[in-house]
Amino acid sequence: MKVNYSNYDVKSLLEALENIDAEAYPENYKNLTNEIAARKYEIQEYYAQKVSAKKSRLNRLFTLISINQLLVGLIALVMLVLSNAGMTALDIVTSCFVILLNVLSGVVLYKRLSRYYLLPYFNIGFQVFAFGLGGVYFNYYGLGGIFLTLDWVSETYNWLLASFTLGGSLLEYSSQNNLGFIQIDLLALLYIWVIRKSLSEASS
Q1: Cα distance between residue 190 and residue 72, in whole Å
Q2: Number of structural domains found in the chain
Q3: Are residues 112 and 156 in the same domain?
Q4: pTM (2 decimals)?
Q5: Phi/psi of residue 144, each to 5°?
Q6: What tens-digit pLDDT sequence spans the chain (204 residues)?
């Protein structure tokens, strides 16, 4: 049966080209390829729009990550001001480091300063892994994350947990703890992937 491909939109034409059996339907295949050739500029525009839409989605997500980093710095600053009286000098220095790191990371991402992308890589990379071994505890994160956990000490724990609260500790030790877990932040891995993808898109 002869098919009238002139009534097809671009997407339908390309789908038809993927699925048609050229040997079984040589006349339809010829008509299809002729129609595609005649509408090559329309097809080029279709592909350009797809690329543009993909970049737009990536750009929005990238901006969201940058705002997330800035919010972490802002909230950490507010917490530092409110609880300054009860903090040790080490706690204050650590908080200032976290504030500075997140603010600079957020600015670099928001301004798309690709030459300084090592800074957000470093900041977010810190958030990928957390662990607790005996009395040693490390868990650095911003506004929470999606955590995949393996715990060989606690009998009751959630192996997959989503948390959206500011917190974390760069490194703590307590002789009262008996910890045994490894944790991966899937959200942090997503952030790193988006940054790498955005960087590769910008350079292409």
Answers
A1: 17
A2: 2
A3: yes
A4: 0.70
A5: 90, -165
A6: 778 888 888 989 888 888 888 888 889 888 889 988 999 899 899 888 888 888 888 888 889 999 989 988 888 888 888 887 777 887 788 888 888 999 999 999 999 888 898 999 999 998 898 888 888 888 887 777 888 888 888 877 777 777 665 555 555 666 677 888 898 989 899 999 988 887 776 666
